[in-house]
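As described in the Methods, two query proteins were run sequentially through the folding procedure within a single session, without resetting any intermediate state between them. The first query and its resulting structure tokens are shown here.
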Amino acid sequence: MNFNIQKLREQFPVLHQQINKKPFVYFDNAATTQKPKIVIDRLNDYYNNENCNIHRGDYHLSRKATEAYENTRKTVQSFINAQHHHEIIFTRGTTEAINLAASSFSKKFVNKDDEILISAMEHHSNIVPWQLACQERGAQLKVIPVNQNGELIMDEYLKMLNEKTRIVAVAHVSNSLGTINPIKQIIDAAHKKDIPVLIDGAQATAHLKIDVSELDCDFYCFSGHKMYGPMGVGVLYGKEEWLEQIPPYQGGGEMINEVTFAKTTFNQLPFKFEAGTPNVADVLGLEKAITFISSLGYENIQKHEEELLQYTKKQIENIDKIRLIGTAGKKTAVFSFLFEDIHPYDTGVILDNMGIAVRTGHHCTQPLMDFFQIPGTVRASMAVYNTKEEVDRFIDGLKMVRQMFG
């Protein structure tokens, strides 16, 4: 590998602390990743030396901040291989990006008795906005089923595509299972019927190289904080042809061309969808997160995380009375599981007492938990800075939980 894991970990200040007098193990990366110093320093630098509004000032600092902000847009364009930098819309995160797309797209293209297609493994952020759109437009929400391995049943998906389908919206990677969905196949099948596709990429960008041109998706959404960047910033990528057609999501400053009390005309892309004072500092932090990922290289990231996946899988399967939820053939290093006779919360609390952070609950995928007929799971989700030594401590912790409950 081209990076040293210990030197890599030195870039993350939060990892070097003790919790309950134990070295901290952070296995909740599907919720949010920790931030390297390059990101933290960029936030501090902006507020210390550049803080001002952008696009509207004729003075030096405003011009400097504006240039940095718009350069980040070009960095994101390159990062996901979009055709145009004005196809990059900055949002507060994946949730706002999906809400923007769902609201604006449905107002223009969805009518009574039309259908919107999502999957059974979606995060609530890719369910509720489409439910709201269906309620508003009199449309129907259809759900692609999953199997017991936590994989989409593609034969059923293909049957569901029809002349009433207006858009397909699916996750690239499941946040609660780690399943990597065959989104290229999903997109190609939809496009054969001229149906656009939105991809929720929140769980993908830290682990997989994204090429929206190769995928040919119509919309792609992701968050900075799940890929080593700041909270409060995300991206909606949309093909120019769709962004030009759909109406603005919010009104206010920057998204306008001319305002009178009689009429308002809207700004050109991307500003048409970026109302109000932007989150400049976190956008600049996002650029540094991309720099961090690029410095490692996705080949190295994937190799390391695949080793963690296989190393953990081999050990966790040998623990008595554990049920793994989500055993897809293609997945990221996410482990959702239950002890058959122990509540997930109890497992999480005991692990926390050992300095190990995992997530318990339904992980904002309640319909998926209902499918598996469980209230929730314990989820351990790993990132590039995690180590096999941390996995060993995690496995020891699970064995202790097992022993405590007999």
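Immediately afterward, the second query was submitted; its sequence and tokens are:
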Amino acid sequence: MNKVFIKGIFLKINSSLLLFILLSACSGNTKITKESQLAGMYKLYISEIRDSNGVWYEDNWTKGGNGFIIYDGLGHGALQITPKGYQDYKWLNEKESINKEIVKQTIDSMSVDELKAAVLQFSSFYAYVASYTVADTAQIVQHQRIASSIPIVWGTTVKRDFAFSGDTLILKVVNGNRRLKWIKMH
């Protein structure tokens, strides 16, 4: 066979192989899954409750508070919500708060009213980490809670209807009267 002919075939095979690899790599990066549509970090804008007349109003628990929800696009997420003033509560620093002896000494030195205030403050913190999946046929995200600031909900699953309005993610309790609006952080 002619060397030029063989070299031409070899060049076509290599070019075709290179093109295939490049197209495969590009198509892998553009694959959009249901889970990836939620990907991002969102800041809580408002939490609302619907009254018996169907009117939505701001929930006092989160009014002026702080919250974040994160979806990684791979099926892992986290949520954290604190009411107004939570970050201003005077407590132990990080090093002290993980030392059981210092925590015990602090609690032992507190009055009953101070203890009540601490329990109220710390119980208002709400957070969990979860795996999540998105329904194939509906705009529903399921959070399979792995751990939570509320021990009794560990290992439970919650469902949320979701919708987007621009950069706002709206999560609504399925068959419930609560919705939260989250603004995507850029």
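The helical segments are 3-29, 94-97, 100-108, 112-123. We note this only descriptively and draw no conclusion about the first query from it.
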